[in-house]
Amino acid sequence: MFYLILPIGKYHGWGICGKYITQEMSSMADIKLITYNFSEKNADPLDYYFLKSKFVGFEEAEQFKNGKELNLPVLQGIYGDMLPWEVKTRGKFKVGYTFFEDNILNEEYIKNARENFDIVVTGSSWCEEILRNYGLNNVKTVIQGIDPQIFNSCNNEKKYFSDKFVIFSGGKFELRKGQDLVIKAFKILQDKYKDVVLVNSWYNMWPNSLKTMKASPRINFSIKSNDYIPMINQILTDNGVDLKRIVTLSPAPNTSMAQIYKNTDIGLFPNRCEGGTNLVLMEYMACGKPVIASYNSGHKDILTTQNSIMLKNMQPIKINDGKADIAIWETPNLDELISQLEWAYQNRGKLKEIGNNAGNDLAQLTWRKTAEGFYEILKQAV
Q1: Within 10 Å of residue 95's Cβ, how many Cβ atoms?
Q2: Strands 325-332 and 314-320, how do they pair?
Q3: Calpha distance 351→168 (Å, rounded)
Q4: How distant, in Å, are the alpha carbons of 16, 100, 264 from that of 140?
Q5: What does the alpha-carbon distance between residue 164 and residue 379 come to, in Å, rounded to a whole number?
Q6: CA-CA-CA-CA torsion for 354, 356, 359, 364, nearest 10 degrees?
Q7: Segments making up each domain of the chain, as ranges
Q8: What's the fold here for domain 165-362?
Q9: Closest by alpha carbon to 4, among 67, 75, 70, 63?
Q10: Residue 122, H or E segment
């Protein structure tokens, strides 16, 4: 039997990750789930019914906040300064799971990791390499997966926009995700061709993260509305984008996105950094759709020359929190992005092969495989 201490949700990466790991590991071992803010609102009906059967209950979950000891192996999410998510418990064998983009670490973070976990599992090889460079050696990588029942290349021909070249861009709107580069590249393509459309799914529930776009030298950025869709559309308008060519999506659970992906031609992911492997990128590619994506950080675990159109020309960028440098990311070259997007527009017939390769590769990277990776680590303590 194992304890899993993970967030559960359907709108953000950590919650989706926690849901699928719990589901898949439950078929391999007895599982007890400890989570917080768990309700029918943050899980689909069948997911909620299943996860509730694994949940220890709110009363017992609260006991762990008071230091209740666990006598079984534990898999627990890591947040912030390499500290355990929500509760600091003692267990027979503690496995921590982490994604991070702030890659300039201090000694306290490494100390926290050593004191709280027997092994740290990272969501990308990039994160593992960083921790090892800081002297933390008991580290392994287990990457995220996709749900093949939902994200697959079956019936992925467009039903809508058949006469358009449709570009998709996803991920919460912030400097790290690179939507400023998407806007700039799309504006240039829009001015040349009448049949281009941008579908964006950029909802960001964290205001401070959203405001990081102020640092972009590429776009005019100001927030003129607190309502999400008017805000995004105003930003696009301020940068010369024709709203008649735009579909701005409301926030939606990831399980509803496959239909969106399959009605587009190419995904743009010029991200400056990904501590994980970028779940939106993975799910988009799993639908048999090609991407133009930055070959940096966590993307390197997913992208190949056969399954994607890579952006390789990078410029290092220092990230400062107002007090000190906290990260070094890599900004894709805008000219390269525009050139690759132009190539994709002119070579639509060649995109199908790239998309097929993407679908075949991502079909192997399931949540089942993710869970098997954790099971192999946890069973060491049994």
Answers
A1: 24
A2: antiparallel
A3: 14
A4: 21, 14, 35
A5: 51
A6: -100
A7: 2-145+367-381, 165-362
A8: Rossmann fold (3.40.50)
A9: 75
A10: strand 119-122
CA distance 357 to 306: 6
- Tell me the pLDDT of the chain (382 aa) as tens digits: 899 999 998 878 898 999 999 999 999 999 999 988 888 887 788 888 999 999 888 777 777 776 667 888 999 999 889 999 988 877 789 999 999 999 999 999 999 999 999 999 999 999 999 999 999 999 999 999 999 999 999 999 999 999 999 999 999 999 999 999 999 999 999 999 999 999 999 999 899 999 999 999 999 999 988 899 999 999 999 999 999 999 999 998 888 999 999 999 999 999 999 999 999 999 999 999 999 999 999 999 999 999 999 999 999 999 998 889 999 999 999 999 999 999 999 999 999 999 999 999 999 999 999 999 999 999 887 6
Cβ neighbourhood burial of 173 (10 Å; 0-12, 13-18, 19+):
buried
Query: What is this structure's pTM?
Result: 0.95
Question: CA–CA separation, 210 vs 202, rounded Å?
Answer: 10
Locate 40 and state its tokens: 């029918």
For residue 114, give Cα distances in angstroms to 66, 83, 122, 267, 380: 22, 10, 14, 39, 18
Residue whose tokens read 């027979």:
92
CB atoms near residue 365 (< 10 Å)? 20
User: 165's torsion region: left (phi>0), alpha (psi -120 to 50) or beta?
Assistant: beta
Q: Do domains 2-145+367-381 and 165-362 have the same CATH topology?
A: yes
Domain 2-145+367-381: state its class: alpha beta
